Structure of DNA mismatch repair protein MutT:
Amino acid sequence: MSFLDHVTRLNRHDLRGFRPFAIGDAVVGHVRHALAERLKDFSAFQVTGERVLLSPALSEVEARTEAMAEVAETLVADGIVPKIRLEEYPVMARPGGSILMRINRAAVPHFGIIAFGVHLNGYVRRPDGPHLWIGRRSRTKNVAPGKLDNMVAGGMGDGLGPRETLIKECGEEAGMPPALARRAHPAGAITYTMELGPELAGDSRQEGLRRDVLYCYDLEVPADFTPVCQDGELEDFRLMPVAEAMRLVDTTDDFKFNVNLVIIDFLIRHGHLDPDHPDYLALVSGLHR
C-alpha cells in the first residue's frame, strides 16, 4: 500500500459496465446494467439498452422523490439496496446545480448519484511536532467498520450546506461546541469516482458507483479540548503524531478508504508531503478528478 495506491483505488472505474441515468436532458448518475434491467419493472423509469430515464410524467421534484422512495423500498426488500437510511440526499446534474429530486442515502451509489460530505482535520501543535485527532469508527457500521477516521466527517443531507453540516457533525461526533467548530477554515475539496462491488469495494461494502465531493476543513484544536463522541459513530479518539498518520496512510489500509485522501491532502497543504516525493504530481492531480 502507498499514498498513490489509495488515490488510484478511489479513481478506478469502468463506465462500460453502466448506463447513464437521466432526468430529462440531465445525466445525474450511472446504473449497472443488471440493475437497469431490474428497473424495467417500475413505471417510474424508461429503460433502453443505452440509458435509464426517469419517467417524464414525473415532472415535479416531490413527485420524483416519492417515486424514488418507493423504488428504494422495493430494492431493499429484494436485498439489492441495504436498509433505508433516515436521510435523503439531493440529486443534481452537477455540484451547485438545481435540485432535480431527492433520494434515500442508502440508494445513492446504486444510482451513481453525486454525494457530498465534509471532513475535518483537527490538529494540535505540540513541542514534539503537530498531531492529528483520529477517531476509530464503530465496528457496527456498515461502511468501513473499525477503521480509523478523521476527527469529524459526515455526509451532507438535503437542506444543509457544508458549513452547517460541519458544525452539526462536530457536535454529534466530537462533542465540540459550535463556537469552536465555527473556527474551522475551508481548505478545498476532493473529488473522485470509485466503482464498487464485491471485488472492488473493499471496506466500503457497497455496490455501484461512488461519485463523491468531500469539502475539507482544518481546525487548530486547543490543547485542553478532548473530543468525545456523542452519537456512537466513533468508538474512541486518539491524538496521533502527524508523522505516524503519514506512515499509516503510506504503508497500511488502517484508515477508511476516503480518509486516506483527506489526510494526503492535509499532508500536501501543510508541507509534510512535498514536491520531492516521486508521486507528488500524480497525488495532487488525483485528488481532484
Observations:
- The chain has a mean pLDDT of 95.
- The first strand starts at residue 18 and ends at 23.
- Helices lie at 3-10, 33-38, 61-77, 162-174, 178-181, 242-251, 259-269, 280-286.
